[in-house]
User: Fold this.
Amino acid sequence: SPFSRCPFARGARTSQRRRARARARAAMAPPHLTYYSAWFCPFAHRATVALSHHASSVAHTWVESLGWERRASEDANSREQGGEPEHENWYHWKSPELLAANPEGLIPTLVDEQGRAVHESLITVEYVDELAKLHGDPSTLATPLLPGDPAERARCRLAADWVNRNLCSPYYRMLVRTDPTERREAFDGLRRDLAVFAKERKGTFYCGDTLSAADVALLPWACRFYVLEHYRGFVIEDEGDLKGYHEWLRAALALPQVASTLPDKQKYLKHIGRYADASARSKVANAVRSGRAAHDLQRDD
Assistant:
């Protein structure tokens, strides 16, 4: 048509094609996240493992965002319990950048290039997995952390929540609570539920022979359970009903994307000692000190 021969029309079509190619390149480019974290936090460690697993598909910049400062107890939420020694207490300082992204100051917090923040550790694992699926190069894409089958995906999500409540929260009860009977009850429950987790696996890992979100939910605590022997004398034996758990743990720790994320043992023992001697005044410690579970945080903790 005469219009198709018009140089202005050809120029418009060329411009449209360029914009389409630019949009396609942008869609293919791996997303880049700002990751507000802390080296010592097992909740944040979940997001760290997910980002390590999907490193070929999701880029990130780590921003260390929590630390400790020591001062006398003067806040209304010290949650004192019987049997605590006299000492000054350790409180978290939180970076201004973290508080700008997430006013509650919780880690992990992931922020995309549009400034949108995602937090809550189990949610961040799913978020990273979804980003990888959307933007990853099929030739280098890692295995998904959540199964594609809807029923298996639901099973994995339910297991991750169960792990959070039954296998992670008792860790803090054993450390923060001062009553030896409470500590022992928590440890006995942990041993029982670790055996249940191992028995319900559908392969090497919870959902089969590749790492899943349910495994990532537990790993940051499982790789820190040496703390229980060090501070409380509690040993998770590699025998009987717990052999399956140790098989799972050895397989997980052998994965490069897990092994590369582990904190230094001696450095971590020093850090967690603040929970063991009841001087930590973090949100988790305050929740447990008041008799609640670690996952039952409240805004005033």
